[in-house]
Design goal:
This protein has about 160 residues and is an alpha+beta fold. The protein is about 40% helix and about 15% strand.
C-alpha cells in the first residue's frame, strides 16, 4: 500500500502560505470577499493536466492543503500518488469542502505540482532515452538552492 510523505518532510512556511504571501492576489481577494459576504459555498475542485506525465509533488500539495487551509478537517482530499503515470485530463487531486477554506492556496499547490511533475516527467524521458546507461542529475548547478531537495525527489 502506498503511503504519503509526512507534512514534516516539507518544511513549509505555513504562516506565509496562510497569509497569501505566495499566492496570486486574486485568490487572496476571493477569500476575503467570500468571508466578508459570509458566503462559503461547498465546492469540488478537480486538478488535472493536459498531457501524459509522471505525477510528482502530490504529497506536498496535500501537505499544503492539510496544514495551510482554514479548518482542514472540513476538507475531503483525494489524490493519486507521486510516481503515478497520468493521462491527459485525468483527475490527480480532488478537494471537496468550503471554498474560502482553501481558495487562497491554489497558486501554491498548483505550482508545486507543475514543477515537480515537469521534472519527474522529463527525467523519465531522459532515462528512457538513455536506454540503460547511467543518468546523473545535478540540480544545484542550474537553479536556486532552495529547490534542490524537491527537484532531487522529483527526479
Amino acid at each position: 500500500m502506498k503511503k504519503r510523505l509526512p507534512i514534516s518532510a516539507f518544511h513549509l512556511p505555513v504562516a506565509e502560505i496562510r497569509s497569501g504571501y505566495y499566492s496570486d492576489s486574486y485568490f487572496v481577494r476571493s477569500k476575503h470577499i467570500l468571508e466578508k459576504d459570509n458566503y462559503n459555498p461547498q465546492v469540488i475542485m478537480q486538478v488535472f493536466q493536459r498531457q501524459s506525465a509522471i505525477l510528482c509533488g502530490i504529497d506536498q500539495a496535500v501537505a499544503i492543503l492539510q496544514s495551510c487551509s482554514d479548518n482542514p478537517e472540513q476538507l475531503k482530499i483525494r489524490a493519486l500518488f507521486d510516481g503515478d503515470r497520468v493521462s491527459p485530463w485525468e483527475t490527480v487531486l480532488t478537494i471537496e469542502g468550503p471554498l474560502a477554506n482553501f481558495v487562497h492556496l491554489e497558486t501554491v499547490y498548483l505550482g508545486v505540482l507543475s514543477r515537480q511533475t515537469k521534472i519527474a516527467t522529463n527525467v523519465d524521458r531522459v532515462v528512457s532515452a538513455a536506454a540503460g546507461k547511467p543518468v546523473l542529475f545535478f540540480p544545484s548547478r542550474f537553479d536556486h538552492f532552495s529547490v534542490q531537495a524537491e527537484d532531487g525527489y522529483a527526479a
